[in-house]
Amino acid sequence: MTRRRLLWIGSYTPDSGIVGSAAGVQSVWLDTDSGTLSDAGLAAPSSGPSFVVRSADGGMVYAVNELDTGRVSGFSITGERELTHRGDAPTGGSSPCHLLAHPAGRHLVVANYGDGSLSVHPIGANGVPQEPVQRLTHTGSGPNADRQEGPHAHSVYLAPGGGHLLAVDLGTDELRCLPFDPAADRPAGPQHVAARLAPGSGPRHLAAHSSGHLYVAGELDSRVHVLRFDADTARAETVDTLPATKEPADNFPAEIALSPDERRLYVANRGADTIATFEVSSDGTRLRHLADTPTGGAWPRHFAQVGRYLVVANQNSATLTTLPLDPADGIPGPARHTLDVPTPVCVLPASVD
């Protein structure tokens, strides 16, 4: 029996900081047997909803609005695939590109790429994001004059151990760390630099292993950096680094994610236009490159594992592609299906496997 999975697709719009052709958050059906994708239409109009996440209870979807004057929007799930806009709030920063719905269900934390700040938003009783109760700024720069003239917070995550947040700063080559108490009126404590990566690495996104190891995609040096995070000291140290792909290309890694069983690490490579697969050692300390699989599109910015498939958002070719995962070795095969989608940049399964 065919099983369909709904996917919400973050995108760029004509009025967003990076100009795209979408009208908002889009919806797509995935046939989990065949890997076929079919267009389900516009889920909700929105300006520059480039990154989307589910609420902790699964009843809301939140999106950054990647604009010069940043905002974060909340949508309730209505009907089979529709999202209804319930409200939004300014982030106080520019070009927000990533957000965390804290698992306690009380706050959103937004990474504002343009000015490098983090904004902390309480979630109202109706699920709507409120104005920030904290805005955490940072200073610094890196050696790449075009991309690292100042701080650029590119993503934010719950740190291993659960008591801290980690912000990945492309502009300063740092992981910033802050204690976070969701029961407090001002939940974020003072931030500090948990780790400094190689100058010019341009860290973008990370994946956290249950062992406490972190895998950080370096957008500017095209490498994966392995760090050991100590939850007691809230510090991290680099233990290894290796190329993000073996394909010869000017390459800029984007999304990085572990398989559910943590045996494989996947990296989206823009330029090489591949998904790289790495074997992860059982203790999380070592990675070994296994394969580079073409995505069947151009500039793969993001992907999500949905059952037996990786669904890849190829920004520049304006396509979604499905790559079947080999059940024995976890390596994705050639793209099985392609769907034209206006400027897709984020893939969010509407429900958890």
UniProtKB/TrEMBL annotation:
Pfam family membership, one: Lactonase
Domain of life: Bacteria
GO molecular function, one term: 6-phosphogluconolactonase activity
Entry's family note: Belongs to the cycloisomerase 2 family.
Protein name (Swiss-Prot/TrEMBL): Lactonase family protein
Organism (species): Thermobifida halotolerans
Lineage start: Bacteria, Bacillati, Actinomycetota, Actinomycetes, Streptosporangiales
